[in-house]
Fold Autolysin.
Amino acid sequence: MVVNDTPVVTEVTETQTKEDLLSEGSTSLSSLVGDNNMQQYDIIAVVNHLKTNDRLTVTIEGCEKGVSSTETDGYIRGILMITDEDTQNQCGSDFEITIPKLAANIPTSNQNTIQTDTDLLTVARNILDTYTGRNNMADHDVLSVAQTAQITNPDLTIGVVGIEKSVATTDAQGQIIGTVIVTNTASHTNVNESFTMTIPKLQSAEDLAYIIKDNFSRTSVDNYSVSEVLLEYAESFRTNGNLILSIADDEKLDATTDADGYLRGQIVITDIANNNLQTPVFYNIPITKLPSTTPVTTQPTEQTDIQKLADYVNSSLTGKPVINDVTDSMVNDLVTRAVALKAAWYDLDENQVEVTVNGLQVNTANYAIPGNANCIVKLKDITTGQTASFTLNLSIPVIAEDLAGLAQAVHNNMVSNIVTNDDTQIPLTVDAFSFAQTICSTYGVNGQSLGVTLLNFQKNPATTSSAGSITFDLELENISTGEKVQRPIQLNILQLNSNPVPNSDLDQMATQLKTMLSNIYMNNPVNEAEVQSVVDNNVSRLFIGDCPVTASVSNIEIIAPTSTVDGKVKYHVTLRLLNSVSEIDAYSKFTSSTGTIGDGPTDGETSDELNQLASYIRTEISKGYTTNTLTPELAERYVTFLAQRAYTADVALPVNIDLYNWELVKATENTSGFASFKVDLTMKATGDKKTVDIEMIIPATRDESTGGTIGNGTVDTTDLGKAKNRLTEFLNDYNPSNTTSKELLQANLTTLASSYGVTVEVADFEKIESTSTTAGRCKFNVNLSKVNAVMTISFDKAIAKVTSPSSSSSSSSSHSSSHNSSSIKTDSNSSNNGIPKAISPTNESHKIEIVKAITSNGLVASTPKEVITSSGNRIVVSSLSKDNIFTGAVVTSDKATQATEVSVPSNAKIEGVYKYIPELSKYIKVEDGVGIAEGKVVLPTQQDSTYFVTTQVLPPAETVGTGWAQVNNNWYLIDNTGNPLKGWQNDGKGWTYLAHENSAMKTGWLKDGSAWYYLKDNGYMATGWVKDGDNWYYLKENGSMAADTTVDGYTVDSTGAWVK
């Protein structure tokens, strides 16, 4: 063994700070030589090149440019700003870049060549890509940003189209995307490029509290300081308009020559977007005692004339109402008019007063909440050079409802779409409703009171010889007031291609459909409408979600049954997918129609009951399909279940069932499979026997996933590679628990890989169960094999600690929040009458295991179906039924979305959508963003949450609302998203503490950090003297217990108790 005795030196690189980047950037810009074509984004790029910390953001404010000529130099100057995204702290400095004057011996016209459309397009697109967007930016605001690009060619114009916005939240950035277009009006040509403007994450109340506390800790005050100054200082750090700052419990003690003073209180941050929840920032800033030689008071200096004018302008304009779209120039006009009105009163010439407006911040109003705008106004007396500045606060009134404007916006959105012959009234209504909900607040409309209807709906289908159209009247209604607005709409359908395009997928689907239809049993006689309904139903079963294929039936022919041959109906089916067509000749069999099951022999024919039972079993099996994992045992169990269901529950099954001639052809990615077998039905009493031939369809997986990459970087497209990729994705999201077993994993992974013909083996399985104090561990290997190829996936993850039930206080009872993690179940001992207790989807068992039948009250849950929605969200849906009638569905969601669609039967009357709260075993009704239409429910979802779509109104005992809720002797505070809050919370009456482990309200003594607090029996934080047992304790104004000090002349020891 060779030993390398050379010491290894590890270089430690310090994280670049905002001050570091500002210094480096300023130095670089000071030495930069500019030119007349340099833009703002070029300067940002220079500084970004020096950046090594991705959490720093570079922006330029107040940028000005003066172009150079052959006579004079030009310049670019402004303020370089560096923002730390973690703390939102900023620093900045002025910069100026010199643009050298043009060489005299070169004609000026050659210095600035004619600007082309592509030159201008590049500039405009770069400006939009680097601009920092806002949630309240309208389309015209985006256009204004694009038009800041310097245009030197008068034939060129700038426009933006196709703007879409995803708003920023406190958890994620938003973005504005669209297309910028430069048009040459002389040549009538245009060029375009897409752009993406980033909207920074919204500042959370916790972020702002941290920034305020950090800056206040370095702030000094004196006897002339007031809390309002601190509030204004705190306001300077606020970037989220939903956060409102106010002062509470402020107190001041002036310093003297003998003792220090203080300025203390609370800055309360109210989040109006989150149920007006409040976050306090306690401050206690010392005022250093005065030097003995310094007078306590000073003679105030006399105000200048410009300061007096500034005071007047501020007082006269404060609170003046403006609009959401207020701009710097609008405010400048307001101030200028006020100056002109009163300047002469203060011996000033209004024409010699310069007005500057900077830092305009707008918190927009909506239909319910007023907004505000504030900015820094600077007045300068040009004659004397004296200046005066102040912060101007303006109000934005609640927006008056503009239902007509909203209707026009929805109209403009809809008419820009191209529809097809397959579009119908319901989906178009849902689309209109969803779009209206996203923008209604902009027009002062309450989304909860908004109704959308499409009246006079007519469709003129397109043909191969002409285009078509869909026309209707869009009606928006304010349900609260009864106001209605209509807009006529015509949507165009493109002319069909006269030459159908070959489509192998559609042909394969047609073949699969033909097999499915051959196993369908229809009643005799049958008409065209009934055949069409059967075909449509089976076509839709080939898809998850909306079906893009239409089918039409023709040439129906009835073949009557004989004594030896069953009757059948033959027909022609035409399938269409866009411009592709596939045609098949199909048939379905007739069922027997005499007698009823369980009536016994009639007219001496002992086989009649068996014929009816056989027909019933065939018909029921033809309604569904199976999977590659079906076994003879499961098939026989299913047939037995169907046979028993044909009789009443109190009748013993009168037949023996024997299954044989088993054959299973597994489905693959592109081809369907089947399971075929024979079943002998033998009457126990008579020995009569009926043989039934059964074929169950296994649909093709149509899995479009690819495998991982092989060593050379190419994609592994083999079945083994695809299976490995699919299982790897599953295991990446899989969180093991104490209930995880090798057998369950084996079954689940085998199901996932079965469509690829891959064998799965779970090997080397090890599990260490977790406890309430220690995490566990689960690890194993998954061996995949096909023919002679083998692949292995290794898994090793921690098992989270067990959350044990805990007491909310010394005087409150414990509350258990555990749930059955393997099924959706109904507690028959409770009063919920069959309401499913859907468990939290963070427990992987809910997403993996087959949901068991809900036995209580006759509810039955279907096998969970995984659906990937159009928004990319994965949901798992389990339908609920009673006596074969749909009663609801349990839906688990992987991601947070604004609109997730869930399919329901078209005849289902949905009464509501509820979110399940695992900690409380209760439901909260979801109102905002829910749309209910025929065959579809649209709902907003949160990450890892469970929802209950139901045809019943849940009883009050099973639900909670927002605010305080009492459950099992514990109190909880529910926010407007249905989540129980944790930690310190202020409900407007006082401070309370909700336990992190189970969200229950605490009472009694609480240790938070190094401080002790006392929470009264009603949960509110105590202040002042409190008696607990035989001892008295003093709680300070911020709630923390005093210790080792003297209060009001009384001494308290290290435990906080008064020393008597």
Observations:
- The CA atoms of residues 305 and 346 lie 6 Å apart.
- The mean pLDDT is 77.
- The chain has 18 helices and 47 strands.
- The first strand starts at residue 56 and ends at 66.
